[in-house]
Write a structure and sequence with these properties.
By secondary structure, the protein is of the alpha+beta class. The protein has 4 helices and 11 strands, in the order E-E-E-E-H-H-H-E-E-E-H-E-E-E-E.
Length: 261
């Protein structure tokens, strides 16, 4: 009789937490600036306001451009030159038919017939010219409508007006920060992480964040692991993201735990 002995092996996976200090920051931090020099006509927001993406924040004076736009639209709608050319074409076509019949009967001269043909061709060219001018006017209208947007300041993101540096009646310098918008829900935390630990982390991995004076940790997701090591500190920038529905202030130092297998 043969006796078989079975050995069972139990594999143990040890999971331990590594805790590091990080700083909370906005998930979006945008500086909105006018690109043209003009007086500010109206500011539609104030510091602390919540704004939605593409919301209008401020408008500069653009009366000259708006008046020019009205003039071009009236010019295009009137279309007097085109209408005049069409009337002349219809008239000379009928006149040419009548003169052709008269010429066959010897009642008119070749010169008169040639003069009407020339007048018809001239009217047809005038219509082409008027049509081209209408097309150019329509193009100018589109360009002007597009340029009017340069006098508007809109937010590209949802967020809170953190800083307002302009007021009605001012003429701010193009390119400077005129309105700052920050988004803090969700918030990010950046953690300088030792290289050997960062190498074990994965994007999409979990972490827990402990805020000052708060007992319970909040779960967060790893959204970025820098591909570059800081040589001086031998650390890697790691970012985690977590919801912030209560709009907790950002810029705090927090403790972040990574669960490492």
């Amino acid at each position: 009789m043969k006796i078989f002995y079975f050995l069972s092996f139990i594999m143990t996976i040890t999971i331990y937490a590594e805790t590091y200090e990080g700083v909370t920051e906005p998930s979006a931090d945008v500086s909105a600036s006018f690109t043209v020099q003009s007086l500010v006509k109206s500011v539609l927001v104030k510091e602390g306001d919540f704004v939605k993406g593409d919301q209008l924040l401020a408008v500069q004076n653009r009366e000259v451009q708006e008046q020019e736009l009205k003039r071009l639209r009236k010019e295009l709608d009137g279309d007097i030159a085109s209408e005049k050319a069409r009337i002349e074409i219809n008239y000379y076509k009928k006149d040419l038919i009548n003169l052709g019949e008269a010429f066959k009967k010897g009642a008119t001269s070749q010169k008169e017939l040639n003069d009407v043909e020339l007048a018809l061709r001239t009217a047809e060219l005038s219509l082409k010219e008027a049509t081209l001018n209408d097309q150019l006017t329509a193009l100018k209208i589109k360009e002007l409508e597009s340029s009017l947007k340069d006098y508007e300041l809109r937010t590209p993101v949802d967020g809170i007006i953190e800083k307002l540096s302009i007021d009605s009646g001012e003429s701010p310098r193009p390119g400077e920060e005129h309105i700052r918008i920050v988004s803090i829900d969700p918030m990010w935390v950046e953690i300088p992480t030792p290289r050997n630990i960062a190498m074990k982390l994965k994007k999409g991995g979990k972490a827990s964040v402990l805020f000052p004076e708060v007992k319970a940790s909040q779960f967060a997701e790893i959204i970025f692991i820098s591909p570059v090591v800081d040589t001086a500190s031998d650390t890697v920038r790691v970012k985690v993201q977590l919801p912030n529905p209560k709009k907790r202030l950002v810029g705090e130092r927090v403790q972040v735990d990574f669960s490492i297998k």
